[in-house]
Amino acid sequence: MENKILHTIKYMRHRPKMFFWNDDTFNSYIIYFQGFFYSFDCSTNIDLEREISGWYQKRVKFKAPNMSWFSQFEHVNKNLTEIEKIEKLLDTLEIFFKEYFSNKSYP
């Protein structure tokens, strides 16, 4: 599973139009991953947003337990440009998934 997610992130970096035809804005990436997290929760019963939220808050020393992870990310990175936010989002997700799946066992 980890490889599929990491490959998706890789393709998003190099071929964003495969995912976002006309609108490859930061908001489009947020919407895509909100759907991905929801779908993952529905199929595995694992709340990835909750998992990444706790992980992220420790990394950036930002506490907002009732704020969605996507809002936390936007708040912490509010001074970045649109392109920088997208790169930082993909970097953060890549690191999270590598660490998450190295500590979990999935088929």
Descriptors for this entry?
single chain, 107 residues, mainly alpha
Number of strands: 0
From the N-terminal CA to the C-terminal CA, the straight-line distance is 7 Å
Q: What Rg is obtained from the alpha carbons, in whole angstroms?
A: 14 Å
Query: What is the number of helical segments per DSSP (H or I, 4+ residues)?
Result: 5
- Report helical residue fraction: 55-70%
Give start-end ranges of low-pLDDT stretches.
none
- Main sheet characteristics: none
Write down the overall geometry.
globular
> Number of folding domains?
1
Task: Please state the average pLDDT score.
Answer: 90
- The arrangement of helices and strands along the chain is HHHHH
What is the structural class?
Answer: mainly alpha
Percent of residues in beta strands:
under 5%
Task: Write the topology of this structure.
Blueprint: H1 2-14, H2 26-44, H3 48-60, H4 69-76, H5 82-102
Helix pairs in contact: 1-5, 3-4
Can you give a write-up of this model?
It is built from five helices and no strands. The protein has 107 residues and is mostly helical. It is globular and about 35 Å long. The N and C termini lie close together (7 Å). 13% of the residues are buried. The mean pLDDT is 90.
